[in-house]
């Protein structure tokens, strides 16, 4: 038998090595986008690409807003801050100044007849020539001047009118080479840091954040307000919080586990023996998932590893029993219990693969393969490395086991009170069903926000000054060519203009406001020609132009009918935020983003969604709403599968335990209900992370009941169950103290859930076990 075990262990080791080698050679990419968790039929590659682009634009930039009571102080502060930021050369590029705006805007002058403002174009389309005529006269005789006015080359001041509209739509203008923010009360200027690496890169955070904090502190002492916006700030705050929790909760948990192992086994080696199967399980799970899928998601690794942690049960039972028996004897004694535990857990977790959600499918494959690998490691490796446990202490129960069993035996069992047991089962059943119907689900992704309110307010202040919406919604316009995309956008803008005019929508920014389609530009030239034909004579008479001057004006119109090409427009500063729209996307389509400004009411959102749905070239995108909807779909599927898993496993275990099935199932069901009730009472609802934690509670609780039933009062079984519960509480339950929402929602379930199961399990055992 031992020789067979050695050969099997060698074969298993080779299989692990081969799987890991193949996985490493494949070099599967790690996915971090939560949108990748959406079902494939819900995803549009073009929208994903645009969403990732929007995220990347924000992710790698730090926007710095410098405000002061007067312009001179603000400009001086900008120069000082720029000098301070020079130490970040090699880590980030700094943008604080650009070419003069007047030079940039003058470049549009040759296209003045093609680039009409929307207001003038609309008047000319309805042949309202008196409007531009009167406006031109008013501007010409106005005491404050008319900007770049030339009564011969541009008698109706179409260029000045177009510039005025451009400036209204731009929240950042160039003022003496500096970037001046126009959407704030106090004089404010903008600096932009473009990071060379991902904002989650810890060395980048360590280099950049001290510099930013020092600048903010120095400027604050001088009465200058410096505000930041960028993912780097949030990532650094999250990393700081994670470091604190690792050094407190994580270290406390690890020390607690080590202390317990030392107290019970009086050696540190059992800690390695307990953790080895879990580590092998996670390693094989990562490798198999990488081989199975094209990409592996970080969420899969995080939650999958937690679920594989159930395997600590298997190794804990083996190590405890190894103090009484040899490895081969322990395998024979525990095999049926380990097999039932494995089957029930694999059914509970592996069934998630049947759902249409890629994220749940990955977690199913990860947890199922991880548990199987851990189970094989317990059966094949542990008998070979736990021999010293048995040889030195054979037939000597651990003192901790004797103490715990005496405490357990002092508790009454429910089969001594059958009526009470029946009432308990029925009550738990009603509460279980009622809880899921009455409890409020919480699916907003904002629940996962880890940044403090002050940092969020500062971020929003800068984004609002930049003219970016405080909401996450935007519109995507697509077309088979750049010209088609611009025409589609211009057509849809009529609906947006209606919403702006009636006050439903604050405003919006679109590329076609700055770069009209070729079709629109040619229409504008035709409209201007009609305006000249209708009103130039009257205009010339009103201001006293001679016939030769009037002829020059007509000649200027004929000579300046060129249209603005995307190539020329792309060289101007005003094109900076739209450069990506000029190139085809990976799908071959052209696409641009219409940025919506101001707060969107529910009615406005519904209107925009309806308008977009009616046009095949328009898509309404709200990343926050999409992610929240994804979380809701996952929550529903996990809840459904939890019910199904409980039902299937109850039927499966019924064939083994018959009428004693309640002794195994009641503790995990009761523990799950009480844990979920605690979460609902404390947080006002439950979410997907609570349900995933319930799966862990279910797995550990089920193993607890199975092993207690299978052991028939084995002296080390209750010790193993207690140690497994205690180490799981330390590893997962203490996460309830975390300030990181995902970890907190996981811990708030595991802590009360496992505690209740551990307290209930002895009550469910039959008083006849020891005599059977």
TrEMBL record:
<feature type="transmembrane region" description="Helical">
    <location>
        <begin position="742"/>
        <end position="760"/>
    </location>
</feature>
<keyword id="KW-0472">Membrane</keyword>
<keyword id="KW-1133">Transmembrane helix</keyword>
<feature type="transmembrane region" description="Helical">
    <location>
        <begin position="715"/>
        <end position="736"/>
    </location>
</feature>
<feature type="transmembrane region" description="Helical">
    <location>
        <begin position="299"/>
        <end position="325"/>
    </location>
</feature>
<feature type="transmembrane region" description="Helical">
    <location>
        <begin position="272"/>
        <end position="293"/>
    </location>
</feature>
<keyword id="KW-0812">Transmembrane</keyword>
<feature type="transmembrane region" description="Helical">
    <location>
        <begin position="246"/>
        <end position="265"/>
    </location>
</feature>
<dbReference type="InterPro" id="IPR050545">
    <property type="entry name" value="Mycobact_MmpL"/>
</dbReference>
<feature type="transmembrane region" description="Helical">
    <location>
        <begin position="7"/>
        <end position="25"/>
    </location>
</feature>
<feature type="transmembrane region" description="Helical">
    <location>
        <begin position="638"/>
        <end position="657"/>
    </location>
</feature>
<feature type="transmembrane region" description="Helical">
    <location>
        <begin position="363"/>
        <end position="386"/>
    </location>
</feature>
<protein>
    <recommendedName>
        <fullName>Membrane transport protein MMPL domain-containing protein</fullName>
    </recommendedName>
</protein>
<feature type="transmembrane region" description="Helical">
    <location>
        <begin position="688"/>
        <end position="708"/>
    </location>
</feature>
<feature type="transmembrane region" description="Helical">
    <location>
        <begin position="421"/>
        <end position="439"/>
    </location>
</feature>
<feature type="transmembrane region" description="Helical">
    <location>
        <begin position="337"/>
        <end position="357"/>
    </location>
</feature>
């Amino acid at each position: 038998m031992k020789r067979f075990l050695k050969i099997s262990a060698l074969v298993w080791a080779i299989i692990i090595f081969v799987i890991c080698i193949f996985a490493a050679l494949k070099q599967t990419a790690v996915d971090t986008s939560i949108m990748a968790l959406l079902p494939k039929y819900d995803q549009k590659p073009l929208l994903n690409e645009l969403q990732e682009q929007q995220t990347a634009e924000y992710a790698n930039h730090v926007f710095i807003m410098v405000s002061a009571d007067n312009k001179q102080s603000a400009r001086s502060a900008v120069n000082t801050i720029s000098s301070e930021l020079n130490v970040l050369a090699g880590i980030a590029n700094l943008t604080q100044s650009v070419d003069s705006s007047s030079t940039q805007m003058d470049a549009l002058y040759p296209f003045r007849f093609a680039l009409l403002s929307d207001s003038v174009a609309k008047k000319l389309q309805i042949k309202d020539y008196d409007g531009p005529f009167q406006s031109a006269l008013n501007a010409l005789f106005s005491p404050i001047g008319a900007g770049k006015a030339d009564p011969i080359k541009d008698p109706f001041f179409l260029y000045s009118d177009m510039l005025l509209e451009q400036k209204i739509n731009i929240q950042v203008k160039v003022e003496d080479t500096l970037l001046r923010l126009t959407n704030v009360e106090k004089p404010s200027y903008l600096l932009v840091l473009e990071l060379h690496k991902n904002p989650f890169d810890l060395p980048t955070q360590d280099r950049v954040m001290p510099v930013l904090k020092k600048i903010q502190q120095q400027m604050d002492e001088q009465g200058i307000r410096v505000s930041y916006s960028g993912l780097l700030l949030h990532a650094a705050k999250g990393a700081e919080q994670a470091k604190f929790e690792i050094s407190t909760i994580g270290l406390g948990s690890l020390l607690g586990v080590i202390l317990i192992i030392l107290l019970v086994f009086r050696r540190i080696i059992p800690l390695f023996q307990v953790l080895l199967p879990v580590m092998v399980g996670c390693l094989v799970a990562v490798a198999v998932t990488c081989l199975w899928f094209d990409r592996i998601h970080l969420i899969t690794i995080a939650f999958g590893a937690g679920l594989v942690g159930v395997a600590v049960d298997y190794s804990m039972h083996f190590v405890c029993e190894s103090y009484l028996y040899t490895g081969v004897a322990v395998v024979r004694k525990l095999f049926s219990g380990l097999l039932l535990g494995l089957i029930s857990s694999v059914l509970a977790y592996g069934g998630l693969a049947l759902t249409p959600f890629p994220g749940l499918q990955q977690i199913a494959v990860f947890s199922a393969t991880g548990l199987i690998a851990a189970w094989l490691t317990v059966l094949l490796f542990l008998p070979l490395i736990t021999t010293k446990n048995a040889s030195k202490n054979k037939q000597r129960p651990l003192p901790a086991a004797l103490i715990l069993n005496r405490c357990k035996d002092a508790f009454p069992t429910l089969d001594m009170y059958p009526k009470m047991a029946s009432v308990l089962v029925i009550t738990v059943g009603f509460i279980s069903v009622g809880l899921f119907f009455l409890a409020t689900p919480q699916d907003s992704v904002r629940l996962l926000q880890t940044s403090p309110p002050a940092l969020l307010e500062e971020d929003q202040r800068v984004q609002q000054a930049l003219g970016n919406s405080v909401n996450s919604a935007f519109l995507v316009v697509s077309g088979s060519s750049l010209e088609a995309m611009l025409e589609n956008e211009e057509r849809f803008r009529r609906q947006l203009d209606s919403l702006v005019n009636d006050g439903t929508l604050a405003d919006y920014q679109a590329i076609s406001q700055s770069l009209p389609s070729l079709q629109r530009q040619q229409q504008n030239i035709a409209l201007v020609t009609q305006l000249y034909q209708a009103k130039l004579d009257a205009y010339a008479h009103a201001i006293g132009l001679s016939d030769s001057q009037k002829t020059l004006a007509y000649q200027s119109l004929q000579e300046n009918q060129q249209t603005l090409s995307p190539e020329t427009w792309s060289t101007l500063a005003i094109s900076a935020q739209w450069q990506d729209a000029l190139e085809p996307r990976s799908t071959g389509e052209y696409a641009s983003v219409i940025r919506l400004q101001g707060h969107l009411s529910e009615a406005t959102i519904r209107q925009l969604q309806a308008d977009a749905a009616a046009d095949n070239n328009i898509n309404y995108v709200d990343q926050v709403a999409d992610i929240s909807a994804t979380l809701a779909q996952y929550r529903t599927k996990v809840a459904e599968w939890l019910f199904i898993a409980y039902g299937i496993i109850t039927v499966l275990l019924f064939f083994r335990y018959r009428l004693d099935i309640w002794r195994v199932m009641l503790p995990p069901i009761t523990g799950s209900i009480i844990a979920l009730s605690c979460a609902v009472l404390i947080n006002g609802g439950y979410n997907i992370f609570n349900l995933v934690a319930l799966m862990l509670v279910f797995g550990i609780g089920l193993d607890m009941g199975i092993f207690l039933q299978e052991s028939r009062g084995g002296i080390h079984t209750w010790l193993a169950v207690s140690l497994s519960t205690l180490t799981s509480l330390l590893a997962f339950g203490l996460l309830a103290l975390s300030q990181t929402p995902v970890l907190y929602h996981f811990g708030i379930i595991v802590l009360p859930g496992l505690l209740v199961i551990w307290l209930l399990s002895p009550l469910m055992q039959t008083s006849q076990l020891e005599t059977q």
